[in-house]
Amino acid sequence: xxxxxxxxxxxxxxxxxxxxxxxxxxxxxxxxxxxxxxxxxxxxxxxxxxxxxxxxxxxxxxxxxxxxxxxxxxxxxxxxxxxxxxxxxxxxxxxxxxxxxxxxxxxxxxxxxxxxxxxxxxxxxxxxxxxxxxxxxxxxxxxxxxxxxxxxxxxxxxxxxxxxxxxxxxxxxxxxxxxxxxxxxxxxxxxxxxxxxxxxxxxxxxxxxxxxxxxxxxxxxxxxxxxxxxxxxxxxxxxxxxxxxxxxxxxxxxxxxxxxxxxxxxxxxxxxxxxxxxxxxxxxxxxxxxxxxxxxxxxxxxxxxxxxxxxxxxxxxxxxxxxxxxxxxxxxxxxxxxxxxxxxxxxxxxxxxxxxxxxxxxxxxxxxxxxxxxxxxxxxxx
Amino acid sequence: xxxxxxxxxxxxxxxxxxxxxxxxxxxxxxxxxxxxxxxxxxxxxxxxxxxxxxxxxxxxxxxxxxxxxxxxxxxxxxxxxxxxxxxxxxxxxxxxxxxxxxxxxxxxxxxxxxxxxxxxxxxxxxxxxxxxxxxxxxxxxxxxxxxxxxxxxxxxxxxxxxxxxxxxxxxxxxxxxxxxxxxxxxxxxxxxxxxxxxxxxxxxxxxxxxxxxxxxxxxxxxxxxxxxxxxxxxxxxxxxxxxxxxxxxxxxxxxxxxxxxxxxxxxxxxxxxxxxxxxxxxxxxxxxxxxxxxxxxxxxxxxxxxxxxxxxxxxxxxxxxxxxxxxxxxxxxxxxxxxxxxxxxxxxxxxxxxxxxxxxxxxxxxxxxxxxxxxxxxxxxx
Lengths: 382, 382
Prior knowledge:
By secondary structure, chain A is α+β, with helices and mostly antiparallel strands. Chain A has helices at 7-23, 35-51, 54-57, 63-76, 78-97, 100-111, 174-177, 229-265, 277-305, 311-337, 339-342, 347-355, 365-379, and strands at residues 117-120, 136-140, 143-154, 161-167, 178-184, 190-192, 206-217, 267-268, 271-272. At the A-B interface, α8, α9, α10 and α13 of A face α9, α10, α11 and α13 of B.
């Protein structure tokens, strides 16, 4: 039993850490005027990250390194991290399930961030519940015609490549109803709405994407066989949940650093407020949640790499714990900052809004609890 | 990073688990109802090598390392032991015995460890006093060195095993003005002149462990019974934390596993409104939280154990985090278990209410959660 990072992992984290702190250009996304300005910054920074191997990390060879690196980037800029890793998700899919033709066509461009990727699964009327998905792909001669729309697609505004989950069979059971299609931005009938305003994560551009009689060839089907979409999504979901956990840890660590620094400098009767129990205990809880959450995330990452049976459940445990933790942490940090935190424009105010995201994305806390409970309830029958 | 255990370790854990399930657990519920320490359970613990587990084989022990000791504790808890017998074992083997093992002279080890290994002598550790618990450095029990003996004066309270013990590891100060630098540890035997114990205390939980005050009235301790050298007591007390925050928490982890299985089985078979109660989200939520807590507790406990086994110094922040989180969340989880059982959860026969009473100790024994938060906060502010 060994909890230490390997020498190699420490190297990767150190190198990527320098990229995060020195190479990427800091952007004040809260105050960027247009989506295009944000997109311009993102493309440049994602290119720098890709050049250091960031995208490749999410293919899965070393998920512990991926999560550790992710946390470092998320701490420095949550939006840049989330946009970048959202572009990496299609890479994971294509690397795992794509045909060699698909891999040749798309993988290197995405890994180098010459192309930006976007995963399009959720719809306005279907998030947690796949059975409500209504984007449909119908066969017509030797092509497929896609109609429908996707909501909250991260990177859509600038994406070159979309991975779109569509229904290819009706009501035969989730295991065979859905198929992923790889679609180019310039597909006729594919329209991307202006990004929606969000509470936080203002540098991650999310849009509705509409498909109106979009025609794609058979070669667009991820892995060439229809009906595998749900299974493919289930296989990749742990990687995505680990990325969201890394995001939560990064934001949580940033909140903790800010709050600790503030609690050292701010004094009452000559004493730093951090030494007052009501403030210090909050710092301690931040530390506890970040520390335990990181361990849980690494455990889940190791489980995914080892292909353990519990990998999916452990990834859900990590995502659940870290996402709930970061909300608590951000709330405590805001309280420590008090008026200075609530006033617009403080870093902590921005982090507070960024913190709200992880509990919602890629499995709400409620859905994760149901899945985790089902695992135990099915395992321990009377 | 590697979270696996060897086949040998798995077999060891399984052996302990099976033995305790067969020979100890069936006795525990009744023993808790009576609030009585069971000599039969104690004998059976010896039978399976628990009492001398970490001591070198030449003193009758098994020479087990930290991870192995944790596996044993986890197995014992998982098999359904009550909190009282687990506590009695922990205080005997780790709080008393391990101190002698780590700091004793060869003569002291030869004299005490063999009889502690068989459980013929029961051991205890006396640090806390009526006037100081959390502020352990402020103890006022004194030790004065005479020509041929030490004379100890003072009293201790809440000492687990004291009513039954033959061997007492007692902390006293040789110079109050030196604060922690005056504290010294002694091995005191039951029949030394001047040592007596008070009436057995009736506790909220862990009722099968015996607890009382210890009185030292001009108690005469031979010179050769100073433990670890004069004025080294504080370092010895702090050193005990590494056992406290790993091995002593392992039975709680086991208890969590036992509880999760028990609650899951019950949720499958209990019906309300024509469906098993597992169908209700309020029940699922509690089951899910138990699973997440179990995974995190396991990681926290074994992180310290694995570090100790690879020769690393104890990380005091990790230790404090462990104690705080496992204690606080443990009580909440025990309460959730009662909720799942509803009315049956309130009745002694079903075991969960005893678990809740036992779990309260986790928040206050061996260091309160509030103090743990203070320790972490102070470290963060340095």
